[in-house]
Amino acid sequence: MKKIISIIAAVVILSDITSCRKYLDVVPDDIATLESAFANANETTAYLFGCYSTLQSLADIRGNAGFTGSAEIMYPFPLSDENMLGGAGGNAGFRIMRGLQNRLSPIQNFWDGENQGKNMWQAIRRCNIFLENVNKPLDLPGFKKVRMIAEAKFLKAYYHYWLLRMYGPIPIMDVTMPIDASTEQVRVSRQPVDSVFSYVTKLIDEASVDLPSVIQESASEAGRITSVIALCVKAEVLATQASPLFNGNPDVTSLKNKNGTALFSSAYDASKWEKALTACEVAVDAADKAGISLYQFRTPGNIVHLSDSTRELLALQGTVTDSWNTEQIWTLNPYFGFQNMCTPVVSADAATQLFGISSHFAVPLAMSELFYTSNGVPINEDKTWDYQGRYKIQYGDSAHMSYLKLGFPTAKGNFSRERRYYADVAFNGSLWFGSGVTDDRISNYVNAINGYAYPPDKLRFNATGYWPRKLVPYQTTYSSNSVIQNYSWPFMRLTGLWLLYAECMNEVHGPSSDAYLWVNKVRARAGLKTIQDAWTSYSNNPGKYTTKEGFRQIIHQERRIELAFEGQSGWDLRRWKELQTVLSTPVQGWNIYQKTAENYYQLNLVFQPVFSLKDYFFPIKENDLIVNPNLVQNLYW
Fold it and tell me: pLDDT at residue 437 above 50?
């Protein structure tokens, strides 16, 4: 598929167009190549995979607001855009949390394809061109044509959905604008948000019936859309439509087109959750029938020794870093290219590699505190856990020697935490299995006050003292003989679907044994007690799970933990209208340049995030409003 995408890049050449039409890039400037592009089955297949190219580019998490704007990861600032993160504009997405979004040159601009954004209108146009010309090749078998049409419809739906999440009401581009279209024809208007949701789900419905449930030829077809992917995306789309950001949101009801058409409904509609619940039921059933199941870690033969505790952590980590595993509903082909950003220096050899490890992806202290205690409840609810004393120094003991360096000074808050905390987050004193070590009896560990983690150049540093360990396979080693274990980016996992299912159940019916079941299946894999047992026995709010509002909070926190660092939480927090609350918390970490434990474990303010109502939807570039006076700007910009 990657080879085909490379070929199509030479076919679909996008040239400059007149400024009055640039905002949608609707003029099919590649029209002269259409006859050759659809001359035969091979060329047509190549064009389809050109339609996939924008989708595959979404594996670059720098352009994903669900990753960069989630408050899960921060990037040090100021560092020049050219430093460490892949060229000019590389860290642009992280600047939004600092209040630097603007309407003159928007960050992560997916409307125009600028500042870490991709031009989604170009992607939609490619899909439309494909659908309008797929009947031309005479040698394309009917069964292949049916599948390819379904894929193009899904891609067109998903690109609209991506824009919908970012901008709210958008134009619907269902056909290619003719080359001789008048100025008024190309000056399209934004459509009411519910109309766009309906359009997206309609396309997905049309596509899903003609897609295969599983990929049979993984060597040549990995990454192509299946009916299971389509049905799971439909469930997510409908849950998004039902969520507070889009469903009766009083903050946006005044947004209207120039002709007075309201773009958001002012009334909350409970039936939207019912539709989402039905879609989740269908998706869960389809995933089960397709053999999608929880990931099972199998110990490789090159491992010298692995305790049960380490194996459990690798089983959690492998859900992300073991490519194309049974739990990944949807995986994108491109590799995750930022392991060096997520890795601490754990050896003297690694510390000598100036351009090896930069460690810039830092986990805020507040994010580390989101993970549960070992009793399976939030740290501020566990009546047996010392919440007030969590910043005190405590030394690694034998009870935690599977996770913490024995006898090493670390924060008390790192003790008695759930498995996902130790699998997903690294910190001063935590063990780091891998990085060239295959015997967990002699594992490396993070020693952030020995000079390895924060060398004198002050370029390769982690601003908080917490790393997203989850995103680094144990096989990856940074040293004089570096070995990078690449993996493809997981776009959707089974546990995320289960938690979405539970969320919809709760919103429709309130707490129930059926809803608890799906959350408990996720918790069981993480080694936690059921919600009922954990809250009843350990929480200072034991009845929390029995109310709709309390169970909603539990589900939201469970999703943020389970899907941490996977580019999902930022979107969830937006649709729940909780991102403003989360970003009201200062980004804090430890006093990272200190060389003693007493001085290191002092809270340090990294920065105060800036987020207001206007940031829930991205601004449309000011110039686009000038060239198309029928467009209206999102509120508060």
Answer: yes
**Max avg pLDDT among 82-96, 447-461, 478-492, 550-564:** 550-564
Contact 454, 64 (CB under 8 A): no
The length of the chain is 637
412, burial (CB in 10 Å: exposed 0-12, middle 13-18, buried 19+): middle
Total Cβ atoms within 10 A of residue 595: 10
pLDDT-derived band at 479 (thresholds 50, 70, 90) equals confident
Distances (CA, A) of 93 to 89, 345, 461: 8, 25, 19
- Neighbouring CB atoms inside 10 A of 609's CB total 21
The residue behind tokens 């700007």 is 633
* Residue pair 38/32 in contact by the 8 Å Cβ criterion: no
> What would the two tokens of residue 41 be?
């089955």
Dist CA 447 CA 631 (whole Å): 54
Contact 194, 169 (CB under 8 A): no
Burial of 550 (0-12, 13-18, 19+ CB in 10 A): middle
Q: Which domains does the chain have, with CATH numbers?
A: 318-491 (no CATH), 493-585 (1.25.40.900)
**Contact status, residue 283 vs residue 228, Cβ threshold 8 Å:** yes
525 three-class SS: helix
Q: Does 525 score more than 80 pLDDT?
A: yes
Pick from 402, 413, 335: which is nearest to 370 by CA? 413
Helix ranges (DSSP H) in 484-637: 494-509, 513-525, 531-538, 548-562, 569-575, 579-582, 597-600, 622-627
At 71-91, the pLDDT tens digits run 999 998 765 444 433 334 578
End-to-end CA distance of the chain: 41
